[in-house]
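Example for tutorial group B:
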């Protein structure tokens, strides 16, 4: 695992930050974050929801992409991506206590050897936890890069109104 602070230069990052943290960014309600028993059943928990924006996905049998994908070009170039598999942003709202989600990999599809990278958009008191016990705190413009087969879990924030990140899966 590699953690890189100040991943993008400040002007590149500020442009992405301003867009994603602004009032005009298109977030879509997702009625679950966690799955029960790894079979994609909805868990009936009032805190089990998030807002997402799928920038790109080639894992669903056909390629789909958002009109906002070009805004992420500086990131995609910098991670040395040979083949983009999926790019999805998550917005988790503030919770009254930290909630650790289930450990997971980012898709049920078994890809060839691939990487996962998470770029944290805003600083908050949430984090990403890995099955081996390591943690990466949510710090604005911090990138964590790891093997796509590593199980990880998001932990909500309790201080800021939202925890925002972008998740990249690629070869």
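The residue assignment follows.
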């Amino acid at each position: 695992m590699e953690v890189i602070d100040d991943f993008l230069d400040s002007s590149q990052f500020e442009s992405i930050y301003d867009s994603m943290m602004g009032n005009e960014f298109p977030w879509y309600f997702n009625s679950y974050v966690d799955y029960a028993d790894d079979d994609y059943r909805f868990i009936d928990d009032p805190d089990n929801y998030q807002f997402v924006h799928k920038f790109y996905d080639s894992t669903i049998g056909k390629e789909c992409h958002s009109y906002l994908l070009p805004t992420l070009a500086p990131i995609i170039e910098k991670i040395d991506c040979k083949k983009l598999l999926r790019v999805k942003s998550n917005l988790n709202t503030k919770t009254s206590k930290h909630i650790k989600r289930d450990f997971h990999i980012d898709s049920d599809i078994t890809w060839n050897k691939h990487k996962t990278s998470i770029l944290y958009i805003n600083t908050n008191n949430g984090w990403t936890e890995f099955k081996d016990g390591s943690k990466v705190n949510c710090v604005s413009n911090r990138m964590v890069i790891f093997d796509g087969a590593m199980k990880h879990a998001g932990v909500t924030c309790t201080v800021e109104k939202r925890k925002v990140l972008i998740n990249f899966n690629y070869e």
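Residues 2-170 form a domain with the Jelly Rolls fold (CATH 2.60.120.620). Compare this with the pattern of hydrophobic and polar residues in the output above.
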